[in-house]
């Protein structure tokens, strides 16, 4: 199961119409997602020479609808060449926040540094429509080397730290689970469901021994720290039930 399989399943299940992706790169995930309105944000999209040569803070319409001017401006496969921080600042000025006019599903796969990932999560939740979902990539690195220079063709960075921090700070408002597939795919939805999630102990119950590194602590307790679930549980919890059940 790949990240876009999870995203597409959530889109189909919840009839989502708008998708925002943080971290387009070469469009590997973006091109696989099936949603009516798709927007990507990346300071350096590089699928084509045209994307690379487009000035920063400009919008690239990959497949605009034909017809009148209003249709051309409809955000269908729209790529915004910008940092996520700048994009969300601009979004604050032309759309509502706290779920007013936001995106139905937002996928975060940008700069894999904990502080930036955490900021992307917070900004995404401000611009998420009611009943929407935030999805994260690279939440469950198998080896320490994946968090530094990267090996096996993958650099996850320390995204896992942002996941743990979010669970600790927002568990009474949101539930975050990580599907154990494709380097760890996190799912965030609104609702205080922690008491229902009896499969996993919560990160609040873990005490890091003195002298243990962040990685050692995570590697030893990852299942409970990031609420790790198997793909079959994803379908049971998110696809065969309603949001919030």
Descriptive key words:
alpha/beta, Rossmann fold, 8 helices
Number of domains: 1
Instruction: Write down the CATH class.
Output: Alpha Beta
**DSSP summary, beta strand count:** 9
Say what the CATH topology is: Rossmann fold
What is the CATH homologous superfamily assignment? Vaccinia Virus protein VP39
Question: What is the overall shape?
Answer: globular
User: What is the second-level CATH architecture?
Assistant: 3-Layer(aba) Sandwich
Distance from N terminus to C terminus (CA atoms, Å) equals: 23 Å
Q: Number of DSSP helices?
A: 8
What series of H and E elements makes up the topology?
HEEHEHEHEHEHEEHEH
Mean pLDDT: 84
Q: Could you describe the 3D structure shown?
A:
Residues 64-75 and 194-201 have low confidence and may be disordered. This protein is of the alpha/beta class and 245 residues long. It has a single domain, classed as 3-Layer(aba) Sandwich (Rossmann fold). The radius of gyration is 18 Å and the shape is globular. The chain has helices at 3-14, 49-53, 69-72, 84-94, 114-126, 159-170, 214-225, 231-239; strands at 18-22, 37-41, 58-61, 78-81, 103-108, 128-136, 174-179, 185-190, 228-229. A hairpin with a 5-residue loop joins strand 7 and strand 8. The chain has 8 helices and 9 strands. 32% of the residues lie in helices and 19% in strands. Strands 3-4-2-1-5-6-8-7-9 form a 9-stranded mixed beta sheet, with helices on both faces.
């Amino acid at each position: 199961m790949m990240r876009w399989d999870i995203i597409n399943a959530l889109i189909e299940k919840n009839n989502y119409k708008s998708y925002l992706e943080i971290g387009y790169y070469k469009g590997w995930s973006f091109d696989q997602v099936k949603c009516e309105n798709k927007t990507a944000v990346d300071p350096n999209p590089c699928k084509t020479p045209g994307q690379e040569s487009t000035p920063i803070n400009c919008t690239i319409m990959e497949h605009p609808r034909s017809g009148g001017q209003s249709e051309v401006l409809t955000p269908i496969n729209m790529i915004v060449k910008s940092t996520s921080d700048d994009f969300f600042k601009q979004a604050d000025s032309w759309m509502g926040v706290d779920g007013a006019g936001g995106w139905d599903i937002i996928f975060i796969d940008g700069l894999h540094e904990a502080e930036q990932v955490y900021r992307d999560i917070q900004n995404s939740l401000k611009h998420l429509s009611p009943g929407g979902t935030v999805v994260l990539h690279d939440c469950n690195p198998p080896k320490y080397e994946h968090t530094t220079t990267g090996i096996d063709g993958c650099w996850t960075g320390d995204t896992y730290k942002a996941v743990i921090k979010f669970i600790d700070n927002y568990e009474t408002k949101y539930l975050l689970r990580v599907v154990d597939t494709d380097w760890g795919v996190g799912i965030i939805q609104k609702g205080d469901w922690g008491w229902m999630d009896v499969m996993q102990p919560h990160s609040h119950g873990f005490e890091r021994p003195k002298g243990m590194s962040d990685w050692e602590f995570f590697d030893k307790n990852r299942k409970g720290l990031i609420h790790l679930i198997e793909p079959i549980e994803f379908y049971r919890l998110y696809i065969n039930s309603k949001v919030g059940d």
